[in-house]
């Protein structure tokens, strides 16, 4: 017998008939998945309407960690925006950093030397590896398979050690500079990257052996949360989620940036856009990232790691101590006294989740007039209720996990 | 490969006076149109046999408080994946009348982009199925990305101005 209070909470309860028994047709349960639920990996509220075990409809509330980055950016010199971009997709912050720096370089018209471009590619691919690693590992955890996660998480730690070697920070890296990199790759960093590649391949093989044809895992994710290519395009999906649906759109290939045209790699494409395809596309992308990484580290060109643009490139600290010109430029850049030319730029990079775009309008001042982030998470998360429709709650968990929704990027 | 001139010419041939301000900053074809023409224009570009702008990259807005009559600029970024060609459409609105038709019937993804633009700038998308705030609280009674609102929360009274350089 359902209580009076619950009846009021349910909108679709039919009027109670005083004479006969209560009819329970069309009665839906409202279930709050989140805001803080261990399986949402972040703060998202999903209000699901359930008919028994089936999800009838859902509605998301986002914005729990909205930090108004676009507004803050309007008051910050270009260098200080780096730290904001770090905190969007915090699973792969180097990609955000490099994307931002490339946007500013496009605005300023700075040509970055080949070596710096290759180092950027290396860092971005390491970030992609770390991002996909977390996503796929956690998908395993959400289906109850903790072992795979334990096996591969050590490699993420090793990637973070490389970040640490390159820039001193692990999570919120700011290794890039406008015009190049903060510093060159040290011999230790190069050694660590070269050691990482074969070890990563081994671990990834082991991970695939655990999961790819695992009966329990496949039962949980095959045919779950599929989305057609047309719907995915209509929603504006990009990245692995779109490629799982069968569209081979990759910003690295369509609009190459930072010397991506020099490398040979394939775009893995799925067919049905279901959770299994998303998992497999991410897995295959890790293999491709390793290929790019190997090519980039073996063919690392000689030369400078920063462009000859002293007005914009923050000089190395050792120079600042010894050289008057460097001290002056350091001061002017840090105080944000150097104006950028007026202009309007859209630059996109392939982030961990897809097309991460920076729309920057400069009015010739020291800060952007308007900065808008095209965040892939924000755009595809709205398809989540449609993808869950008619499935069970346990399916909803793996769909969210496989979409790789990152709270920081969603809310910005 | 499409060139900016070809695409611009195709659009001018179809829409004539309704489009203008053609420019290509950093090689991205940019032009503006009117509020009445924006939806016909996007659906024309989407359904065109060769252009096929079937991907909506982004919708956002910019506030120019100092240009009377065109204070708000709604910016659409479209992408033709087949031709690998991007373009940018702008619609200028005056602050007295910030209504613009919604693009949700054309692209499902426009839903949240428009909600975000509404939330941050107050641009009203007519015909939007669910035009509510998305990032900020429902209780907020202003649109924070407008230039008249300073970066710090102007509604707070617990901060002493002198200590914050205001």
TrEMBL record, chain A:
UniProt keyword Ligase present: no
Choose one Gene Ontology CC annotation of this protein and give it: plasma membrane
Task: Name the EC number(s).
Answer: 7.1.1.-
Q: Which molecular function terms from Gene Ontology are attached?
A: NAD binding; NADH dehydrogenase (quinone) (non-electrogenic) activity; quinone binding
What does the UniProt keyword field contain? Cell membrane, Membrane, NAD, Oxidoreductase, Quinone, Translocase, Transport
Quickly give the catalysed reaction: a quinone + NADH + 5 H(+)(in) = a quinol + NAD(+) + 4 H(+)(out)
Bilayer topology term: Peripheral membrane protein
Report the transmembrane regions from the record: none
Instruction: Reply yes or no: does the keyword tRNA processing apply.
Output: no
Please state where this protein is localized. Answer: Cell membrane
Instruction: Indicate the enzyme's highest-level EC class.
Output: translocase
Instruction: Please tell me where this protein is predominantly located.
Output: membrane
Q: Please report the stretch or stretches of sequence annotated as the NADH-quinone oxidoreductase subunit D domain.
A: 142-411
What does the function comment of this entry state?
Answer: NDH-1 shuttles electrons from NADH, via FMN and iron-sulfur (Fe-S) centers, to quinones in the respiratory chain. The immediate electron acceptor for the enzyme in this species is believed to be ubiquinone. Couples the redox reaction to proton translocation (for every two electrons transferred, four hydrogen ions are translocated across the cytoplasmic membrane), and thus conserves the redox energy in a proton gradient.
What family does the database annotate? Belongs to the complex I 49 kDa subunit family.
Fill in the subunit field for this protein.
NDH-1 is composed of 14 different subunits. Subunits NuoB, C, D, E, F, and G constitute the peripheral sector of the complex.
The protein depicted here goes by the name NADH-quinone oxidoreductase subunit D
From TrEMBL, chain B:
Question: What kind of membrane protein is this, topologically?
Answer: Peripheral membrane protein
Which residue ranges run through the membrane?
Answer: none
| GO-annotated cellular components | plasma membrane
Q: Which Pfam families match?
A: Complex1_30kDa
Enzyme group, top EC level?
translocase
Q: Report whether Nucleotidyltransferase shows up as a keyword of the record.
A: no
Spell out the InterPro entries in the cross-references.
NADH_DH_suC (IPR010218), NADH_quin_OxRdtase_su_C/D-like (IPR037232), NADH_UbQ_OxRdtase_30kDa_su (IPR001268), NADH_UbQ_OxRdtase_CS (IPR020396)
| Main localisation | membrane
Entry's EC annotation = 7.1.1.-
Going by the UniProt record, its keywords in alphabetical order are:
Cell membrane, Membrane, NAD, Quinone, Translocase, Transport
Record keyword NAD present: yes
> GO MF annotations for this entry?
NADH dehydrogenase (quinone) (non-electrogenic) activity; NADH dehydrogenase (ubiquinone) activity; quinone binding
How does the annotation summarize its subunit structure?
Answer: NDH-1 is composed of 14 different subunits. Subunits NuoB, C, D, E, F, and G constitute the peripheral sector of the complex.
Function, as annotated: NDH-1 shuttles electrons from NADH, via FMN and iron-sulfur (Fe-S) centers, to quinones in the respiratory chain. The immediate electron acceptor for the enzyme in this species is believed to be a menaquinone. Couples the redox reaction to proton translocation (for every two electrons transferred, four hydrogen ions are translocated across the cytoplasmic membrane), and thus conserves the redox energy in a proton gradient.
Q: Matching PANTHER family, A to Z?
A: NADH DEHYDROGENASE [UBIQUINONE] IRON-SULFUR PROTEIN 3, MITOCHONDRIAL, NADH DEHYDROGENASE UBIQUINONE IRON-SULFUR PROTEIN 3
**Stated family:** Belongs to the complex I 30 kDa subunit family.
The protein in question is named: NADH-quinone oxidoreductase subunit C
Which organism was this protein described from? Answer: Spirosoma taeanense
């Amino acid at each position: 017998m359902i209580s009076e209070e619950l009846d009021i909470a349910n909108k679709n309860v039919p009027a109670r008939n005083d004479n006969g028994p209560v009819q329970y047709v069309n009665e839906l349960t409202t279930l709050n998945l989140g805001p803080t639920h261990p399986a949402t990996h972040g703060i998202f509220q999903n209000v699901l309407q359930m008919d028994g075990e089936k999800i009838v409809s859902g509605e998301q509330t986002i914005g729990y960690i909205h930090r108004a980055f676009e507004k803050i950016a309007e008051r910050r010199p270009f260098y200080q925006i780096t730290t904001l971009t770090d905190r969007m997709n915090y699973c792969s912050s180097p990609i955000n950093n490099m994307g931002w720096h490339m946007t500013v370089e496009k605005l300023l018209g700075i040509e970055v030397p080949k070596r710096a471009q290759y180092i950027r590619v290396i860092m971005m691919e390491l970030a992609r590896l770390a991002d996909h690693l977390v996503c796929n590992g956690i998908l395993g955890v959400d289906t109850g398979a903790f072992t795979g996660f334990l096996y591969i998480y050590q490699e993420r730690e090793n990637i973070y050690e490389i970040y640490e070697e390159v820039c001193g920070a692990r999570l919120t890296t700011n290794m890039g500079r406008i015009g190049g990199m903060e510093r060159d790759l040290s011999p230790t960093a190069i050694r660590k990257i070269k050691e990482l590649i074969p070890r990563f391949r081994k671990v990834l093989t082991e991970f695939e052996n655990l999961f790819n044809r695992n009966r329990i895992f496949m039962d949980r994710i095959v045919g779950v949360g599929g989305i057609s290519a047309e719907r995915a395009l209509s929603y504006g999906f990009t990245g692995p989620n779109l490629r799982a649906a069968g569209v081979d759109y990759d910003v690295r290939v369509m609009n190459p940036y930072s010397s991506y045209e020099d490398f040979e790699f394939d775009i893995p494409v799925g067919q049905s856009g279901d959770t299994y395809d998303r998992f497999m596309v991410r897995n295959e992308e890790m293999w491709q990232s390793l290929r790019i990484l190997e090519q980039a580290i073996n063919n690392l060109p000689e030369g400078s790691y920063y462009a000859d643009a002293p007005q914009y490139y923050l000089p190395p600290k050792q120079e600042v101590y010894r050289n008057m010109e460097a001290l002056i430029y350091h001061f002017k850049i840090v105080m944000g006294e150097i104006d950028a030319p007026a202009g309007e730029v859209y630059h996109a990079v392939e982030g961990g989740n897809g097309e991460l775009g920076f729309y920057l309008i400069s009015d010739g001042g020291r800060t952007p007039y308007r900065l808008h982030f095209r965040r892939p998470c924000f755009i595809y998360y709205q398809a989540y209720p449609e993808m869950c429709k008619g499935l069970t709650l346990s399916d909803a968990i793996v769909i969210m996990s496989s979409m790789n929704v990152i709270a920081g990027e969603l809310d910005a | 490969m499409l060139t900016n001139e070809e695409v611009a010419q195709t659009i001018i041939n179809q829409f004539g006076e309704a489009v203008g301000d053609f420019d290509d900053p950093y090689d991205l074809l940019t032009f503006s149109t009117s509020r009445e023409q924006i939806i016909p224009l996007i659906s024309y570009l989407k359904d065109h046999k060769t252009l096929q702008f079937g991907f909506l990259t982004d919708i956002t807005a910019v506030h120019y408080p100092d240009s009377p009559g065109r204070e708000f600029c709604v910016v659409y970024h479209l992408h033709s994946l087949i031709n690998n060609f991007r373009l940018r459409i702008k619609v200028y609105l005056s602050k007295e009348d910030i209504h613009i038709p919604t693009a949700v019937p054309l692209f499902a993804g426009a839903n949240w982009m428009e909600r975000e633009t509404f939330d941050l700038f107050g641009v009203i998308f007519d015909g939007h199925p669910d035009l509510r705030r998305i990032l900020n609280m429902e209780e907020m009674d202003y649109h924070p990305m407008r230039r008249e609102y300073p970066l710090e929360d102007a509604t707070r009274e617990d901060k002493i101005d002198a200590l914050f350089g205001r």
